[in-house]
Fold this sequence. Notes:
The relative contact order is 0.17. The longest helix has 27 residues, at 31-57. The chain folds into 2 domains: 5-51 and 248-300, no CATH class; 66-230, P-loop containing nucleotide triphosphate hydrolases (Rossmann fold, 3-Layer(aba) Sandwich). By secondary structure, the chain is an alpha/beta fold. Strands 4-5-6-3-7 form a 5-stranded parallel β-sheet, sandwiched between helices. α6 packs parallel to α8 (216-225). Helix content is 45%, strand content 17%. α6 (179-195) links the parallel β5 (166-170) and β6 (199-203). Zinc ion is lined by residues 9, 11-12, 30, 32-33, 262. The site of adenosine-5'-triphosphate has 16 residues, from α3.
Amino acid sequence: MTEPRAFSCERHGEYVAAGDRYTAAAPEDCRSCRAEAHALEAAWRAAWATWRRVVAAGIPARFARATLDSWIAATPAQRVTLGLVRRWCERAAAGEDDGLGLTLSGPPGLGKTHLGVAALWYVLQHSRQSARYAQWADTLAQLKTSAARRDNAAADVIDELKGADVLVLDEIGVRPGSEYDLGVLFDVIDHRYREELPTIVCTNATGDQACAMMGERVADRLREVNELLLLTGTSRRTGIAKPATGPLPIERPADAIDVPECYAGRFQLRRIEASPARKEFTSGSAPYERARLPLYVRGQGR
Length: 302
Ligand SMILES: Nc1ncnc2c1ncn2[C@@H]1O[C@H](COP(=O)(O)OP(=O)(O)OP(=O)(O)O)[C@@H](O)[C@H]1O
Ligand SMILES: [Mg+2]
Ligand SMILES: [Zn+2]
C-alpha cells in the first residue's frame, strides 16, 4: 500500500486514494467514475439482453410497431376487447397469468395479429420473459423443409414454441390440417397446457369450425385455458395502408458505449464494444430466424 494521495477528477473533483501494487484493481481511480461506468455498462448489457429477446420473438416487420396504444378501439365492443387484452398483458408480465391465454377469433382485418403482437411487445418491455410469434402455416412449412433436409431445425422450432414463456400462434385453423399437422399442433398446445405456459391463439375459425380445423383435443384444451375474445367490426384493410413509422417499442442498443474512467487523476472515456458473439442471435433455429429477421435487417440494420 502506498501513502494515500489526493487526486482530482475533472468530473467529480478531489478524491483521496492509496495505491496498492499487489492487487490488479486500480485503487487510485475515482470511485464516482467507477460507479458511473458500472451503471452504464450494466444498463447497456441489459438492453442487449432485451434486444436478443426481441429478435428471438420473430415479430413480423409489418407488425413491428403494433402496440396496445396503436390499436384503435372505436366501438364499445372493441374497448372491451382492448381492456381484456391489456389486463391479460399486465398479468402475464407480472407472471400472474397462471398459464391462461387468449383466443382472438373473428373475421379478417379486425386486428387479431396486431393485438397478439402488441401482447408480445408488452411482455418484452415489462418483464424478462421470452416471447415468440409463430404463423402456423409458416411453422409447418419450416418443419417440412427441415424434414426434407434431414436436419434438426424442426426439433428446435418445436422446442422454441413449446418453451417460450409467451407464445402467439397466428392463423391456426385456416384450413383443415392433415393428421401430421394436427399432431404437431397438439404436441405444442398440450405441452404448454401441461406446463401452464400461456398461448395467444389468433384464428378466423369459431365454434365447431375451430374443432374441425385444429382438432377436437386442441380445441378442448384451449376452451379450458384460453379466454375467448370474439372480435367484431369491419376490416381495417381498406384503402392503401400507410406503413407505420417511428421508433420501435424497444430499440436496438448501440454497438459501443463510452464509459468514464479516471485513474490517478487522469480522466478518459473508455469504449466498450459489443462482441459479435453478443450481438449474435443465440437460439437454436438461427437460420430460420435470420431468414425472417426484419427487425435486424430492415428497421435498424445489423
Ligand atoms: N383496431 C385497430 N387499430 C389500429 N389498427 C388496426 C386495428 N385493427 C387492425 N388494424 C390494422 O389493420 C391491419 C390488419 O390487422 P390484422 O392483420 O391484425 O388483422 P387480423 O384480424 O389478424 O386479420 P386476419 O384474420 O386476416 O389475419 C394491420 O395493419 C393492423 O395493424
Ligand atoms: Mg392476422
Ligand atoms: Zn470521476
